[in-house]
Amino acid sequence: MRRDGFALVEMVIVLAVIAVVAVLVASRVSWSFGSGREGAYDGDRRALQEAVNAYHRDQQKYPTYCGCGLDSANNGTPANPNDDSFIQLELLTDGRYLKKVPESASGANDPAGSGSYSWYVDSLGGVASSPVFLEGVYP
Fold it and tell me: Would 139 be classed as within a structural domain?
């Protein structure tokens, strides 16, 4: 008996294999977007930390609106969104400590900032953000 074409069962098997491969590829791609956002956030934090350290070394103060880090009584977090410990990014870019304002910076750091994170200097001189990194949120 001569057959022309494919049987229905063969077509279903081929479509099932294609669907499994598509699911595997889609899950891998969506995972890489999340890790890319986290990598960008970490890159911003490291660049800001290096710039803050260099500024502090040269100027003997932090590049914040008050020139200081946070008091240890605040446990390293800003007391409120208007706190003076937020990093003043213009000081870092104008002084050539930082090439450009990070995309993640919010209006608390830069008047033109539209990012999701407000960067500040904590009581130990470290750079942190408010809020902390949110999965899938960047900038």
Answer: no
Question: Residue 134: what residue type?
Answer: L
Q: Is residue 124 part of a domain?
A: yes
- For residue 17, what are its two tokens? 């294999």
Give the count of beta carbons closer than 10 Å to the beta carbon of residue 39. Answer: 12
What DSSP letter does each residue of 77-129 carry, written as one string?
A: S-SSTT-TTBB-HHHHHHTTSSSS--TTB-TTT-TT--SSBEEEE-TTS-EEE
Give per-residue pLDDT as tens, 108-123: 787 777 788 889 888 7
Nearest-CA neighbor of 135 among 30, 55, 45, 52? 30
> Is residue 33 helix, strand or coil?
helix
For the whole model, what pTM was predicted? 0.66
How many domains does the structure of the chain reveal? 1
Residue 122's Cβ-count burial label (10 Å; 0-12, 13-18, 19+) is middle
Residue 106 lies in a domain: yes
Which CA distances in Å does 48 have to 14, 15, 42? 51, 50, 10
